[in-house]
């Protein structure tokens, strides 16, 4: 019917935002399957009051009635990501183990990619790492092997960017050899979705007039070598005005076998 079932207001001190929400397919606590990821400015220094440029990451675990199981705040003090300003609040990836991965980037001079593994039951940090490449990791999917297929935006040099797809090994979450592919003509892939066999992403072409949007179907190869990825199907389309789908949310319906984006 479209009626609101429940609502809840969060009013933290300073600037705040919620960026992602998931319903975990295998939650650690089945009564609290929802995870909301965002950031909050909590600078308590009176000489530098919020809002400022400094953010901490926040993760909320909820039930269907929006009752909190926990509200976890992450700062540089409890990760091995040492910056004060933290931005691993860009994406959240559920794992079959009931844990979750938070992904994004560091705010060091190089803008390295960042990943933090979280205990789904307690919100405690299990592992944190970063990647010595300028990138924003924005989304991902756990594969049947336990490896993680991630997407986002890669910055090979100042002033340029491209969408990317890569595979992280489940042993230490490092990028798997020859399992990184960048799409130089596309800006970024914010979301990735799967129908159980193939994967779907969408983005926008750089520097064209008009600027065309792109939706791609990706297929992974299990063979060796750099060409682990193919895209057997794709569509270019133009939306009048300033519309862009590189911020789009994606969904695949197994019932009618259609791919949706919004």
Order of helices and strands: EEEEEEEEEEEEEEEEE
Radius of gyration: 19 Å
Q: What is the overall number of helices?
A: 0
Low-confidence stretches: none
Q: SS-based structural class?
A: mainly beta
**What distance separates the N and C termini?**
20 Å
The rough form would be described as globular
Strand segment tally: 17
Look at the structure and give the mean pLDDT. 80
Strand content: over 45%
Largest sheet: 7 strands, antiparallel
Write a brief caption for the model.
This protein is an all-beta fold and 262 residues long.
Ordered list of secondary-structure elements with their pairings:
Layout: E1 16-23, E2 34-40, E3 56-62, E4 68-74, E5 87-94, E6 100-105, E7 112-118, E8 125-142, E9 148-154, E10 162-168, E11 175-183, E12 193-194, E13 199-204, E14 213-220, E15 229-237, E16 250-253, E17 258-261
Antiparallel strand pairs: 1-2, 2-3, 3-4, 5-6, 6-7, 7-8, 8-9, 9-10, 10-11, 12-13, 13-14, 14-15, 16-17
């Amino acid at each position: 019917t479209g009626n609101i079932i429940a609502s809840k207001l969060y009013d933290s001190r300073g600037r705040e935002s919620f960026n992602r929400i998931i319903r975990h397919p295998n939650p650690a606590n089945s009564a609290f399957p929802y995870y909301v990821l965002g950031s909050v400015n909590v600078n308590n220094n009176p000489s530098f009051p919020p809002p400022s440029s400094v953010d901490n990451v926040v993760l909320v675990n909820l039930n269907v009635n929006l009752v909190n199981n926990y509200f976890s705040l992450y700062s540089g003090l409890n990760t091995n990501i040492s910056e004060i300003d933290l931005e691993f609040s860009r994406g959240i990836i559920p794992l079959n183990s009931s844990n979750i991965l938070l992904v994004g980037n560091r705010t060091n001079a190089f803008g390295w990619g960042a990943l933090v593994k979280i205990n789904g039951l307690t919100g405690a940090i299990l592992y944190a790492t970063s990647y010595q490449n300028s990138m924003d990791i924005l989304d991902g999917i756990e594969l049947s092997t336990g490896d993680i297929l991630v997407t986002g935006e890669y910055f090979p040099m100042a002033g340029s960017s491209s969408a990317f797809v890569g595979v992280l090994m489940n042993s230490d979450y490092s990028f798997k050899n020859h399992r990184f592919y960048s799409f130089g003509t596309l800006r970024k892939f914010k979301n990735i979705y799967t129908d159980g066999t193939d994967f779907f992403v969408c983005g926008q072409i750089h520097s064209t007039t008009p600027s065309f949007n792109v939706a791609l179907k990706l297929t992974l190869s299990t063979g060796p070598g750099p060409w682990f990825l193919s895209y057997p199907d794709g569509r270019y389309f133009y939306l009048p005005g300033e519309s862009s789908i590189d911020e789009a949310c994606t969904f695949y319906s197994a019932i009618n076998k259609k791919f949706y984006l919004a």
